[in-house]
Design goal:
Layout: H1 10-26, H2 29-42, E1 44-49, E2 63-67, H3 73-84, E3 88-93, H4 96-107, H5 115-163, E4 173-177, E5 184-189, E6 195-201, H6 210-224, E7 228-232, H7 237-250, E8 256-260, H8 265-269, H9 272-277, H10 283-296, H11 298-302, H12 321-339, E9 341-342, H13 348-351, H14 359-372, H15 389-395, E10 399-400, H16 418-428, H17 433-436, H18 443-446, H19 450-457, H20 461-472, E11 502-511, E12 514-518, E13 525-528, E14 549-558, E15 563-567
Parallel strand pairs: 4-7, 7-8, 9-10, 13-15
Antiparallel strand pairs: 1-2, 1-3, 4-5, 5-6, 11-12, 11-14, 12-13, 14-15
Helix pairs in contact: 1-5, 2-5, 3-5, 4-5, 5-12, 19-20
Length: 570
Amino acid sequence: MSEEKGVADVSEAIDGARDILAEQISEMAKYRNYARKKTMQDGLLEASAKDEKIQSVYEMYYHFSEPVKKLAGHRVLAINRGEKEKILSVKLIAPEEQIVRYMEKQLIIRPDGDAARVMEEVILDSYRRLIGPAIEREIRARLTETAENGAIQVFGKNLEQLLMQPPIAGCVVLGWDPAFRTGCKLAVVDETGKVLDTTVIYPTAPQNRVEESKEIVKKLIRKYGISLISVGNGTASRESEQIIVELLKEIPEKVQYVIVNEAGASVYSASKLATEEFPQFDVGQRSAASIARRLQDPLAELVKIDPKSIGVGQYQHDMNQKNLSEALQGVVETCVNKVGVDLNTASAPLLAYISGINKTIAKNIVAYREENGAFSTRRELLKVAKLGPKAFEQCAGLMRIQGGENPLDGTSVHPESYEAAGKLLEKLGYQPEEIAAGGLTGIGKKTGDLKKLAAELGIGEITLADIVKELEKPARDPRDEMPKPILRTDVLEMKDLTPGMILKGTVRNVIDFGAFVDIGVHQDGLVHISQMTDRYIKHPLEAVSVGDIVEVKVLGVDMAKKRISLTMKL
């Protein structure tokens, strides 16, 4: 024994040896791998309430147990949040006995020897104290990562659908940002998105100046020829909707309204960008303008807002924020580049998402436009500060000019292919001016053998096919194929709903276990994945997307919990 080394007697020496052996065993990859694999295969995740008397959204997890290998991503994220909020206790139950037996078979050479008992204790200690906790942390981190990646994919898909909602063009829109105490902020926006007027009305509690508010709105409708009211779905939306419906019955003008998702409007209204865009407006006026504009052109308006603030999924604040931001930014870029932009009306934030254009160049394009007037050709872009030939090559095909000098500038045909496009038109007997008149319908049928024609024109067959497709429908907007928003003239309340009622609704959000559908009653209804289709689907996105217009039947209404159950199986 050695007091210098802190070993006073035999018992301490044996304990020390045990600790060393336990640590050595825990560091052996073979046993860790086995424990990990076995726990993933046969382990259970258990959750329980710290206090069962507390009512919370996590009640379904108060007595929860599920095999690790079957755990759905949304359950993992919900349990994680419940644990973080100190409502749930969570533990991973591993098949300890099987793991320990395996390790004993591998490590104990003589089961009947004197040292066997000591080794059994060492192995058990190594597993419980070192291997087990490490594996639990590892598996839970892995489950969380997988759940987050799955959720981010769903967010991305939802965001894409939201951004690709079809614009409602050619309407003067009244943006209505509802509120109680501070009043409802209104903004009138013309067909191009220019703000014509703003005001505040107080039709809701505590002021309840309903008749006065109605008169103000009626005057605005007559003065500006408003045909559409865009109402935010936030606080006091229900009360505002009631007043709008009453008002529409009192006027001869044909006006409709839409409830729009105002997620991110308040974030935008307080941003540096909104201050630059509307320096003379307060946050309420900016928010109302944004609510109006996101109906006219959802993509152009929503790109001004941080994608994370648009509200496209559950548990987004629990995610790895860097991964989420990068994924959502990528979705925005893809959407903008898919649609293209009008060079003479696009804002700097929208232009910044185009390939080859950064924020500085985007601002320079807008500054050039303001100084020199509208662009008449794409080539003019080369005069913009810091926009060189390389950037021009990347962005030119995505910039549209309507009514410019060259009709091809209004299409997605790249300037590099103008010569080939000109030869094609000449060969088939068309004039370039005919493109602007609505496209060259039937040009595809006249081209004949594409391979032969491509060789004649000196371009690739794929490039030629793209040119022909574009000339048939110039500057076609892929968003036109999406379902249009439901325009309403009447209101429905939750108490009006009865089981069996069939309604049309808009899919607002898609999550792992179903979809939330706006049926016009302020509270979105849930269509569970099992109620979407008769065929088996792994994920709701196989059946619906954000923005889809769907027909649903009411299954049940829980007024106390404000829950509406819907089915798409009619």
